[in-house]
Amino acid sequence: MKPTRKHLPHDVPNWIDPTQEAFFITINCQPRGTNHLAKTEIWEAILASVAFREQCGDWSWRLILAMPDHLHGIVIFSQQFQMQKAVANWKRWLATQKGIRWQDGFFDHRLRSLESAEQKADYIRLNPVRAGLVEDPAQWPYRRDWKDL
Fold first, then answer.
1. Helix (H), strand (E), coil (C) string for 34-67
2. b/e map of 41-61 (b: 16 or more CB within 10 Å)?
3. CA gyration radius for the chain?
4. CB-based contact 8:93 (threshold 8 Å)
5. Domain 18-145: which topology?
6. 75 neighbors 82 (Cβ within 8 angstroms)
7. Shortest CA distance to 106 belongs to which of 77, 144, 138, 131?
8. Whole-angstrom distance, CA of residue 76 vs CA of residue 74
9. Where are the domains of the chain?
10. pLDDT digits over 85-107, tens only?
C-alpha cells in the first residue's frame, strides 16, 4: 500500500489580518525532475496570470521564482480571497491553458517578521545556484521581484 499525501490546512487564523501577512509558498509539479516551468513561454504565462490576478485583488506578490519542477514565492493574499482558493484557481488555469501538471496542494509558511521574509527571499533567489543551474542568482531568468519585502 502506497503512502498518501496529507493535506495541510491553509486557512489564515481569524485573528490575523491577511492583508498584513506575507507567506512563503512552494508549489510542485509532477513528476518532479522534469522541466515544466523554466521555459520562456510558460514563465511569461505565469507572470501574466500573476499580474492579472493581482489586478483582480486576489493577492500581491513580492517575489516569484520558477525552478524546472517547482515554484517559490512570497505573497500576500487579499482579505476577501482565501489563500487555498486563490492558489487552486491559479493552478487550475495554468494547467488548463499551458498543460502544467501540478502536485495536489502546496506548502505555505507565514512569515512573522521582516527578518524571516528576507531570509526566505534569499533562500528563493539562491535556489538556482544551489541546484547548479547558474553561478550567480542574477543570471536566472525565471525570477521576478515586484516590491520590497
1. CCCCCCHHHHHHHHHHHHHHHHCCCEEEEEEEEC
2. ebbebbbeebeebeeeebbbb
3. 15
4. no
5. Alpha-Beta Plaits (3.30.70)
6. no
7. 77
8. 7
9. 18-145
10. 999 999 999 999 999 999 999 99
